[in-house]
Amino acid sequence: MKRIILIIALLSSNLFSQSAFEFLKLDASARSAAIGGAFVSNVDDPNSIFYNPS
């Protein structure tokens, strides 16, 4: 019985886990983070190359 409870506890602990690499999702500049990442059509900032490569 203890083994089943332990297995269920270990398997269900991953349900609410988050990514270990959350820092990779951060915006490249403070300005784009301030406007919520809606930075595609902004052309007067050097960081726009990260958002609009064309």
In a few lines, what is going on in this structure?
The chain contains two helices and no strands. With 54 residues, the chain is an all-alpha fold. The protein has a domain at 24-54.
Give the number of DSSP strands: 0
Q: What structural category characterises the helix and strand content? A: mainly alpha
Determine Rg (CA atoms, Å): 20 Å
Total helix count? Answer: 2
Which of globular, elongated, flat, extended, rod-shaped describes the shape? rod-shaped
Task: State the low-pLDDT regions, or none.
Answer: none
Query: Mind summarizing the main beta sheet?
Result: none
Distance N to C terminus: 60 Å
Question: Beta-strand percentage?
Answer: under 5%
Helix content: 25-40%
N-to-C series of helices and strands: HH
Mean pLDDT: 77
Entry keywords:
mainly alpha; single chain
Give a description of the structure:
With 54 residues, this protein is mostly helical. It has a domain at 24-54. Helices cover 30% and strands 0% of the residues. The protein contains 2 helices and no strands. It has helices at 2-12, 30-34. The longest helix is centred in the first third of the chain and has 11 residues, at 2-12. The termini are far apart. The model has no long low-confidence stretch (mean pLDDT 77).
